[in-house]
Amino acid sequence: MNVIFAGTPEFASVALQRLLDAGFNVPLVLTQPDRPAGRGMKLQASPVKQCAQSHGIAVSQPRSLRLDGKYPEDAAQARAAIEAARADVMVVAAYGLILPQWVLDTPARGCLNIHASLLPRWRGAAPIHRAIEAGDSETGVTIMQMDAGLDTGDMCLIERLPIAATDTTASLHDKLAVLGGRLIVEALEMSACGGLPRTPQPAEGVTYAHKIEKAESWIDWRLPAETIDRRVRAFTPFPGAAGLWQGETIKFWEGRPEARAADAAPGTVLAADAAGVVVACGAGAMRFTQLQRAGGKRLAAGDFLHGFVLPLGVQLDATP
């Protein structure tokens, strides 16, 4: 079976490697153009491109696939590469570009998407983050037959995964990447035998996982500690959860909610020692055991406090 693979981040590269390990022929990989990254802002290839190049696979990096869009030459070159690959199917995982109808129609068996949620819950760009933020008890991976809608296609395979109370987006991402790689291999093996099921998504229970904005990192201390805890874990590693003290940004990383009497205003520092920085919330408090100042490294609370004094009883600045 010839498989074109379209994806960009680490989540997708895990699936690509799993397909190659399973013996599928991948003549072409589509991925986003190289982006500036790191302190030197040098152009960096995506994890999927790095994986493809390590296996000698042809790579196409169009800025758009719309033949009538802003980059018609990119789209035309990509179309020629896709048609030349003579793929039986295209596998898509966190690619980052909308696939127009001509792409969906080109592979003989269409396009299969590895989506990191239990569809129809959390369609859209950030299903892992939003599942943690919302306090969902479980998530999973859905292998979906793609159509022209936003994650609206028929479900082929689905497997559930519990969300642990300590899961961050980083830890849950890694679990789901492994699960997605296994499921897409199963889906292609079933498709090769003509037995891949398709079930329309139910109309009930649709939610949208909107893209994470950097402004969401600011902590609103008026929220309950349980809510803040979910947001901290949802925004690890990006964009992080941030607060302000005397105009300086503090990133609050690892922590846990604690039950405390409502005897201090939200944002008040209740404790600051090697056991953690405790901040009053709208209900309860958060004990943070790992923090970071602007331009610094993530540090354990005790090490952080050696170079950054947080007096007891002060109230953290209101955030933007």
Would you kindly provide a written description of the structure presented here, covering whatever features stand out?
About 30% of the residues lie in helices and about 25% in strands. It has helices at about 10-20, 45-55, 70-85, 100-105, 125-135, 170-190, 225-235, 300-305, and strands at about 1-5, 25-30, 35, 40-45, 60, 90-95, 110-115, 125, 140-145, 155-160, 210, 240-245, 250, 255-260, 270-275, 275-280, 285-290, 290-295, 300. The strands form five sheets. The protein has a seven-stranded mixed β-sheet, sandwiched between helices.
Features:
4-stranded antiparallel β-sheet, elongated, 8 helices, 320 residues, 19 strands, 7-stranded mixed β-sheet, single chain
Brief summary of the model shown:
The protein is of the alpha/beta class and 320 residues long. The protein has helices at 10-21, 47-54, 72-85, 101-105, 127-134, 169-192, 225-234, 301-307; strands at 2-7, 25-30, 35-37, 42-44, 58-60, 89-93, 111-115, 123-124, 138-145, 155-162, 208-209, 241-245, 248-252, 255-258, 269-273, 276-280, 285-288, 290-293, 299-300.
